[in-house]
Amino acid sequence: MSTRERLTDALYGLGWSTVKKLPEPVAVRLGNAVADLAWKRRGKGVRRLESNYARVVPDAGPERLAQLSRAGMRSYLRYWMESFRLPAWSPERIRTGFAVKDVHHLTDGLASGRGVILALPHLGNWDLAGAWVTTELKTPFTTVAERLKPETLYDRFVAYREGLGMEVLPHSGGTAFGTLARRLRDGGLVCLVSDRDLSASGVEVDFFGETARMPAGPALLAQQTGCLLLPVTLWYDGSPIMRGQVHPPIEVPESGTRTEKTSVMTQALADAFASGIAEHPEDWHMLQRLWVKDLEPRTSGGEST
Asked: Which helix (H) or strand (E) holds 182?
């Protein structure tokens, strides 16, 4: 393990061990202070966030983009402060910390026994939404996590999410898809963050007028298992409560090849994500490259900004 990896692991460990003990107002102030400091330094992540917002809000000038990126960093740090504190939240705090519209799409789907996929973008706090599902709806679910380095950091994330009632599968290794399909055929629930492709099999979609790649997995699982595919968007409204909406199901097209059906369904998913992101761009925590145009130019030292 490198020195940088050890430091990263130690910082996350400190967050989960220390931040969760802070009074909530103190944690909020700390998160805002860290966010503002990171924003003022204008590192790679902040510049990329601002560049992504320029696609989402194309008529925004430099001043508006700067306002959005500052608000975006505060939203991003709110996600982290909440996540560090979630293991210490009472069931009542979790239940009252999230309010979701049209949840009947989810509850009706589960009651039907078909199995349900909830597909989300990097909006708001998907961990809090997941904790609400396991606490309020008393429904366990399966998700997938990217393998992080060092391995000890990945283990921390798995333990954190398992502690909230989630079954966590590694993204790599090739066995996740089959396990997800079995859970869905058994009438279970699967939750996937699905606005950024991490594989070589991503589906090209039109996203805010430009080409991006998103994972094929949600659409393929829906075709293979007959489950419901439900987009979900999340946002903050300035209160301690996170808001959310469960969108209507994305249906499997009646005709076309599997590839064609996957393309149509993934585009519908992207459109649902775009609607939520356009309404609350500052809560979209995309500090990485997403659009194909941005993925192509790379320097010899790795990903450039």
From this structure: helix 176-185
DSSP string computed for 20-74: GGS-HHHHHHHHHHHHHHHHHHT-HHHHHHHHHHHHHSTT--HHHHHHHHHHHHH
Assess contact for 196 and 286: CB atoms under 8 A. yes
Token pair listed for 239: 């209160």
Instruction: Please name the amino acid found at residue 100.
Output: V
3-state class of 233 per DSSP? strand
Spatial contact of 231 and 195, defined as CB atoms under 8 Å apart: no
Assess contact for 113 and 227: CB atoms under 8 A: no
Helix (H) or strand (E) holding 211: strand 210-214
Percent helix, strand, coil in the chain (nearest 5)? 55, 15, 30
Evaluate the omega torsion of the peptide bond into residue 150 and state whether it is cis, within 30 degrees of 0: yes
Angle at 87 between CA 164 and CA 123, to 5 degrees: 70
Angle at 100 between CA 96 and CA 105, to 5 degrees: 135
Q: Which of 94-98, 113-117, 151-155, 292-296 has the lowest mean pLDDT?
A: 151-155
Check: CB of residue 56 under 8 Å from CB of residue 80.
no
Could you read off the pLDDT of 28-47 as tens digits, one per residue? Answer: 999 999 999 999 999 999 99
User: Structure tokens of 189?
Assistant: 């629930």
The residue type at 203: V
DSSP 110-151: HHHTS-EEEEE-SBS-HHHHHHHHHHHS---EEEEEPPPSSH
- Give CA–CA dist 67/64, Å, rounded: 5
Contact present, 212 and 290 (Cβ < 8 Å): yes
The pLDDT tens digits for 173-205 are 668 999 999 999 999 999 999 999 866 679 999
CB neighbours (10 Å) of residue 58?
A: 9
